[in-house]
Design brief:
8 helices; Rossmann fold; alpha/beta
């Protein structure tokens, strides 16, 4: 593990550095989580047949809100979560979930997965493209790898919001992703992938504004929307 990777993990696993929120609105947070959950399940259900033999991996599950919903929704499958913060792992393990602590960016895990997903975390990696290759190797044939919201180097709104809220200490390796390089690197991994844009998270708490935003297709424009990463493994591999 490189010094850069090691230092990044120390920052990401901090138990005292917390995200700040520019807008303190619990309802907005609930709507955002509902939107993300619906988006995840739609992608999963349209690409993978989940059975009792299926395995699902959530990367960076944080407090576990989404992992719990996914485990309940796909109750016959095996759902595993990994995190770099000990307190988050301990909390969910005590609640009966299969959650594991990782202390390396290229982590070891024995299982193979039908679905691997994460939210706002690839841009936290010091080696994002190697990380994607590693995750792809953990997929079963026909499995999917999905990151619905990622920041990147020219993500203007993300840069502004993180400057205002002062998250730079926590976001040490943020904004290193490039859509052009992502496309190039994903071509090396698989022919079945999609790198596009996804609408601002902040709008999920404002249904009317969000509807106008998406009706005008503004959520598909660069510079002020998150990146969306989707990779599917060939079923013959």
């Amino acid at each position: 593990m490189t010094d850069k990777s090691k230092n990044n993990l120390i920052i990401q696993s901090s138990e005292v550095v917390k995200y700040n929120s520019l807008i303190k609105n619990s309802k907005m947070h609930e709507l955002k989580e509902l939107y993300l959950f619906d988006s995840l399940t739609k992608i999963i259900d349209s690409n993978v047949k989940i059975t009792s033999n299926s395995t699902i991996l959530e990367l960076g599950f944080n407090e576990g809100t989404r992992l719990k919903k996914i485990a309940s929704y796909y109750k016959d499958s095996k759902v595993i979560g990994i995190e770099v913060r000990q307190s988050c792992v301990d909390k969910l393990v005590n609640e009966g979930y299969d959650c594991r602590l990782v202390n390396e960016e290229i982590f070891e895990i024995n299982e193979k997965f039908d679905v691997i997903y994460g939210y706002l975390m690839v841009h936290h990696l010091s080696i994002p493209y190697d990380y994607l290759k590693h995750l792809y190797s953990l997929l079963k044939p026909g499995g999917i790898l999905f990151f619905p919201n990622e920041s990147y180097s020219t993500h203007i709104i993300g840069i502004i919001l993180n400057t205002i809220t002062g998250n730079w200490k926590y976001e040490t390796n943020m904004f290193k992703l490039s859509r052009r390089k992502l496309i190039k690197e994903c071509h090396k991994i698989s022919n079945n992938f999609y790198i596009g844009y996804n609408g601002l998270l902040i709008l999920y708490g404002f249904p009317k504004l969000n509807k106008i935003y998406r009706t005008l297709n503004l959520h598909k424009l660069p510079f002020f929307n998150d990146l969306s990463i989707f990779i599917k493994k060939d079923s013959n591999i």
